[in-house]
Structure formats: C-alpha cells, structure tokens
C-alpha cells in the first residue's frame, strides 16, 4: 500500500519502490514528468538529507506527488 501524507501527497521515491521499477529513480522520474506533469501543481520538488552506510550525510531529491498524479503514474506503469 502506498502512503499518503497528512497533506495528501505521495513520495515519488516511495511510489518508485512500491511499483518495483527496475530503472534508476532519477531516470524514471524524468521520464514520468515528460508526460506533461507541472511542477507546483502536480508535484513539488524537495531536497532531503540522509546518512549513507559509511556515516556521511548526503542530499537527495524527492518529489511530493499529488494523489491524482501518483495514480496517473501508476496507471502509466501498468504495474498496480
């Protein structure tokens, strides 16, 4: 099950994982956005920090997708 946060958004990284996409996240999300989704309407780009296995801190980009956008992407993937 895909988690929707309290504001009604879905993490693109979580969606990518739940759909079991074999393509790298950054390549996949760029391809999904080429279908005509609009930033700040259909999704919001965010930067987050996390620790690596070596203990270093790295910054990565995630996207908060509206529920409708997440649904459309899942339908494009035909894997749900």
Can you characterise this structure?
A 3-stranded antiparallel beta sheet has the order 1-3-2. It has 80 residues and is α+β, with helices and mostly antiparallel strands. The longest helix has 11 residues. It is globular. Helices cover 34% and strands 28% of the residues. It is built from 3 helices and 3 strands; from the N terminus they run βααββα. The mean pLDDT is 90.
How are the SSEs ordered, and which strands pair?
Layout: E1 9-11, H1 12-18, H2 25-33, E2 43-51, E3 57-66, H3 67-77
Antiparallel strand pairs: 1-3, 2-3
Percent helix? 25-40%
The whole-angstrom Rg is 13 Å
What oligomeric arrangement do these chains adopt?
Answer: single chain
Shape: globular
Q: Extract low-pLDDT stretches.
A: none
Hey, roughly how much beta strand do the residues contain?
Answer: 25-35%
Number of beta-strand segments: 3
* Beginning-to-end CA distance, first to last residue: 10 Å
Structural class: alpha+beta
Determine the mean pLDDT. 90
Largest sheet: 3 strands, antiparallel
Q: What sequence of helices (H) and strands (E) makes up the elements?
A: EHHEEH
Helix count equals 3
Précis, in short:
34% of the residues lie in helices and 28% in strands.
What descriptive keywords fit this protein?
34% helix; 80 residues; alpha+beta; 3-stranded antiparallel β-sheet; 3 helices
């Amino acid at each position: 099950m895909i988690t929707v946060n309290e504001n009604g958004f879905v993490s693109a990284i979580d969606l990518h994982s739940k759909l079991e996409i074999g393509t790298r996240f950054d390549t996949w999300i760029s391809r999904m956005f080429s279908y005509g989704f609009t930033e700040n309407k259909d999704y919001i780009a965010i930067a987050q920090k996390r620790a690596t296995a070596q203990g270093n801190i790295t910054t990565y980009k995630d996207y908060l997708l509206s529920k409708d956008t997440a649904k459309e992407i899942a339908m494009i993937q035909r894997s749900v």
